[in-house]
Amino acid sequence: MPLNPNKNLKKYFSIGEVAEMFGVTETLLRYWEKEFPSIQPRKTGRNVRQYSQADIDEIRVIHNMVKVRGMKLSAAREAIAKNHSKEDVTTDLIDRLQSIREELLGLKKELDGIV
User: Fold this and answer.
1) Stretch 34-47: mean pLDDT, rounded?
2) Residue 63 sits in a domain of what CATH number?
3) What range does the domain containing 19 cover?
4) CA 21 – CA 92 distance, rounded (Å)
5) Are 80 and 87 in contact (CB under 8 A)?
6) Can you tell me the distance from the alpha carbon of 49 to that of 47, in angstroms, rounded to the nearest whole number?
7) Where residue 3 falls among pLDDT bands split at 50, 70, 90?
8) Could you tell me if residue 3 is inside a domain?
9) What is the mean pLDDT of the chain?
């Protein structure tokens, strides 16, 4: 029987997991839900939020605009409404650049240890 490469992928994430992913509070995520209707986590009978990958992708764009780039919520809402796909590309680019920066800093630290 072939292995399922997606067996470790979760379908839903708790609010605590998502808050930890972005280094924000659960309260902030709830606030962003009110401010950005595009974030629509599934809620269980006890009102427990379950975030899908689409919700997380939307939060990533909002986090990038508000926390990384310092935009006001109203400006972020407007930017998303005008051109969401451009913001997705910008967010992906910033994520990649930050990852490359961390890798380069790690390499520099290793090289400094050699000298």
Assistant:
1) 90
2) 1.10.1660.10
3) 13-114
4) 15
5) yes
6) 6
7) very low
8) no
9) 84
The answer as to whether 8 is a domain residue is no
Average pLDDT over residues 30-39: 92
Residue type for 13, please? Answer: F
Q: pLDDT of 50-102, one tens digit each?
A: 999 989 989 998 998 899 889 999 999 888 887 755 556 666 677 777 788 88
Overall number of domains in the chain: 1
- The answer to whether residue 66 sits within a structural domain is yes
Residue 1 maps to a domain = no
Q: From residue 16, how far is each of 25, 29, 51, 74, 91 by CA, in Å?
A: 8, 10, 10, 26, 22
Secondary structure of the chain in the HEC alphabet? CCCCCCCCCCCCEEHHHHHHHHCCCHHHHHHHHHHCCCCCCEECCCCCEEECHHHHHHHHHHHHHHHHCCCCHHHHHHHHHHHHHHHHHHHHHHHHHHHHHHHHHHHHHHHHHHC
Nearest to 33 by CA among 67, 12, 14, 58: 58
For position 47, what pLDDT does the model report?
86
The pLDDT score that the predictor gives to residue 38 is 86
